[in-house]
Amino acid sequence: MSLTEVPVKARPIAHAIDELSPTSADELIARIAATSEALEGRTVWHINTTAQGGGVAEMLASLVAYARGAGIDARWCVIGGDQEFFAVTKRIHNRLHGAPGDGDALDERARRSYEATLAFSGKALRSRVRPGDIVIFHDPQTAGLVPMLEGSGAHLVWRCHIGVDDANELAKETWDFLRPYVDVAHELIFSRVQHVWSGIEAERTRIVPPAIDHRSPKNHLLWPESIDAILHSAGVLPSNGDGRPVFTRTTGETDEVVRKAVMLGAPHLDPDLPIVCQVSRWDRLKDPVGVLKAFAEHIFPWQPSQLLLAGPSVTSVADDPEQADVLGEILSALQDLPQAVRNHVAVACLPMDDIEENAAIVNALQRRSQVIVQKSLAEGFGLTVAEAMWKGTPVVASGVGGIQDQIVHFSSGLLVDDPTDHKTFGEHVSLLLGEPEFAFAIGDGGRERVRENFLVARHLLQDFQMYDDLLATEDFDDEVLASA
Ligand code: UDP
Fold it and tell me: Distance from the CA of 64 to the center of ligand 1, in angstroms?
């Protein structure tokens, strides 16, 4: 299938705004009412390549649901692709982060493969989009679709969730590869100003940092007894105490975690030892092998603790072909460690059959851990950081990309300037493990920082502002819309 709609149920906007002050909530409700009236009869389309796994899918599930709750005909479609297409788009992804990826070129052959796959989805999308609609294309995988919608009368927005702070030649070459496509977009959205490409006009550019949905199964409150029960049911902890593994779905219904993680390395965590955990797709830029080495050399010798590397089951994320290889690299690095360390490292491939069940397991892990780490070598934003901060769990993360916008060092988390500096990384984690009061204060600071800056209501407000701005630029009249 070249274009598949992801079913998203409307969710009440009241859920998105319940952490806002009354004044801010009133402001948002007023804007939503005005904008949704202006959008009447139009559709807001979001296009990406996967309905699950990764930050974009995580955000779209909430943003689309709340927009629908506000009365907007918001839709989310994923495009398909073959192995070669995803090899090329993963290469683009890596290079936009300044990394070589598979090392192959972004040449005419790559361009032909990229465009040939997109031609099918472009045709399908073009037949559905009407004048006056707003189409938001997410990330490089979908950038090539933008010109295919030119002349459709729709407002075309390309949103880039990734980038690098100091672009190297690889990143710049990749901008040039993508430029012909994104040049025809009416608006370009980046997650941070440092990620805006040189040569892109400021008037077409908007900065929208990502956000988390505090009411989603990933982030809602879990009772301590449910946390252990969820992790027991998922096979991550050996004992469950007295609780039931319950979580609340976005529909409001409760359910239980029943599926098991595939545990590699240690068969399960020790319930009595502090947990240091990284939750990420199996991606070299998340540096899981670096986490392993830093734990072995600079944390385990100083603080009694255990490491958990958690990620999705390897075949579950459609647009990421490198996951199995990266997992293999982790297991091989694990084999090289002394037995005493190996006994304290677990690698969990979390079940992805039910995305809300998976979210509940991640939620439990982020709450049960003493320290969450995100040792990325490059990062667009890093939702996992905000997710942990919201739960009051202290975070140690590399000071790269959008992580720097989230964490204020020593106030809402600890940053490591050089992501390859294992020693400082280990010292920061050890400090939090050894000083529970300090860890609590950092966790508290993290939660407040997310409350003020990175919750979904702020994102919705920016989305609605953009819709208003786009509609204000229209140069065709209502008759065109009516005839569409
Ligand atoms: N995630 C998940 N299950 C997993 C691993 C990751 O739900 O097994 C989620 C994670 O909680 C976060 C998203 O995937 O919501 C990753 O987003 P982030 O921005 O951190 O990184 P990306 O994968 O987009 O590079």
Answer: 18
Residue tagged 């590397």 (tokens) = 309
* Structure token pair of residue 31: 């804007």
Question: 0.85 exceeded by the pTM?
Answer: yes
CATH class of 3-211+456-483: alpha beta
- Give 54 Cα–ligand 1 centroid separation in angstroms: 4
Q: And the tokens for 444?
A: 């508290």
Contacts of residue 342, defined as CB under 8 A and 6 or more positions apart, other chains included, come to: 265, 266, 334, 335
Q: Please tell me the class of the 261-453 domain.
A: alpha beta
Q: Is 383 in the pocket of ligand 1 (CB under 6 A)?
A: yes
| CATH 3.40.50.2000 domain locations along the chain | 3-211+456-483, 261-453
In the reported structure, the alpha carbon of residue 382 is separated from the centroid of ligand 1 by a whole-number distance in angstroms of 8
Q: How confident is the model at residue 318 (pLDDT cuts 50, 70, 90)?
A: low
CA pair distance 480, 484, nearest whole angstrom: 6
Average pLDDT over residues 278-303: 97
The secondary structure element, H or E, covering residue 453 is helix 436-453
The mean pLDDT value for 285-296 works out to 98
